[in-house]
Design a protein that fits this description.
Blueprint lengths: L7 E7 L11 H15 L4 E5 L3 H13 L7 E4 L8 H4 L2 E6 L5 E6 L5 H4 L4 H4 L1 H9 L3 E2 L2 E2 L2 E2 L8 E2 L4 E5 H4 L13 H12 L3 E5 L16 E3 L4 E6 L8 H12 L10 E6 L5 E2 L2 E2 L8 E2 L3 E6 L4 H12 L4 E6 L10 H4 E5 L2
Parallel strand pairs: 1-2, 2-3, 5-6, 10-11, 13-14, 18-19
Antiparallel strand pairs: 1-20, 4-5, 7-8, 9-10, 12-13, 15-16, 17-18
């Protein structure tokens, strides 16, 4: 699986429609999506999943008013349950060939709505539909006699043989179990076989409020082959302080596929963001690396500027821009959760 910063042919995104994700806020969310597409489209095609012709027309109106070049957008009328394309969308892998040529395939991991929600069957069919539409092979990851359950937000890769995930998500057997019949070694073997992971870095848990139960893309992200940004919470009274500190301790002894150490750059957390007394999983680590820009969720917080500065230094050849995500995170996810990259082959 190529790293996210490697050249993209396209970004996949599902136009929003599920009102239960953003109660009373769906109209505002359309504008956020339009801004996401506006920032990505100058560097690559944006492939948008829509439910119907009417849904496509709705998306087109918002994109047009936001000034998006229609020639940079392609629509696919593949009905979805929700819009979290990172988790159910096509996960592309690439194989090198002779004379510098390469080929791509899509790994069709099973999606079961984070072992939490009843609506998932439409989402689970998206990867196979994308493979058919693009004319690329579809690989079914069968482990222990069953199709492996895995969401794109549960993993992050450096494109050089190292994959990062959390025990809370992939090894849980009680709260939201994905593959309770599999051992750690079986999961690692599957990640190696289907995604090319020679080394798996296991963090402990994710941030509070994350209804995926431990997705790594709210906690820690690769920014190059050796470097990660890791969320840190200095306030010892904050519920995120202890698990994030433990993750830093784990990374101190972790080794990349080539045997090297992991370089860790601290990334701040925004202050607690609450809705009806429930803490939302607001995190600057949920950024997305596109060809033209690195888009970063912002939360009207003093640490917005700090996070943008850190990521700006780490991606000097890309524009690093903030996208207002206070409404977006009401759905328990932000920019990375909504997007999925398609690498160049």
């Amino acid at each position: 699986m190529p790293a996210e910063w490697e050249p993209h042919e396209a970004t996949w995104i599902g136009w929003p429609h599920n009102r239960s994700d953003w109660p009373g806020k769906l109209s505002a969310i359309h504008w956020v999506y339009a801004e996401i597409v506006r920032k990505i489209a100058p560097g690559e095609i944006v492939r948008i999943l829509v439910n119907s012709r009417e849904h496509e027309r709705l998306a087109t109106r918002y994109l047009s008013r936001a000034g998006v070049d229609p020639g940079r957008v392609e629509f696919f009328r593949f009905p979805t349950d929700r819009g979290w394309t990172r988790d159910f969308g096509p996960i592309f892998v690439r194989r090198g060939g002779a004379r510098g040529r390469s080929s791509a395939a899509i790994v069709d991991f099973r999606f079961n709505a984070w072992a939490r929600y009843p609506e998932w069957r439409k989402d689970d069919r998206i990867a196979s539909k994308a493979a058919k539409a693009l004319g690329v092979p579809l690989v079914e990851p069968i482990v222990g006699g069953e199709r492996l359950v895995l969401e794109g937000g549960a993993i992050d890769v450096n494109g050089a043989g190292t994959l990062m995930t959390t025990e809370e998500c992939l090894l849980d057997r009680e709260v939201q179990p994905r593959n309770p019949h599999l051992s750690r070694s079986q999961v690692e073997e599957a990640l190696g076989r289907y995604l090319g992971a020679e080394s798996v870095l296991w963090l402990g848990g994710g941030v509070t409020g994350d209804d995926t139960h431990g997705h790594v893309d709210d906690v820690c992200r690769f920014v190059d082959e050796r470097t990660v940004v890791l969320c840190q919470e200095p306030n010892a009274e904050d519920v995120n302080h202890a698990p994030l500190r433990e993750n830093r301790e784990r990374l101190a002894s972790a080794r990349l596929a080539g045997g090297g150490k992991v370089e860790v750059v601290p990334l701040p957390m925004p202050g607690p963001l609450l809705i009806d007394g429930y803490r939302l999983p607001a995190s600057y680590a949920n950024f997305y690396i596109s060809n033209a820009a690195v888009i970063v969720p912002t939360f009207n917080d003093p640490n917005d500027r700090v996070a943008l500065g850190i990521l700006g230094d780490l991606f000097p050849t890309r524009q690093v821009v903030g996208i207002h995500a206070v409404d977006l995170v009401l759905g328990f996810g932000t920019l990375h959760c909504l997007t999925q990259q398609q690498p160049v082959v």
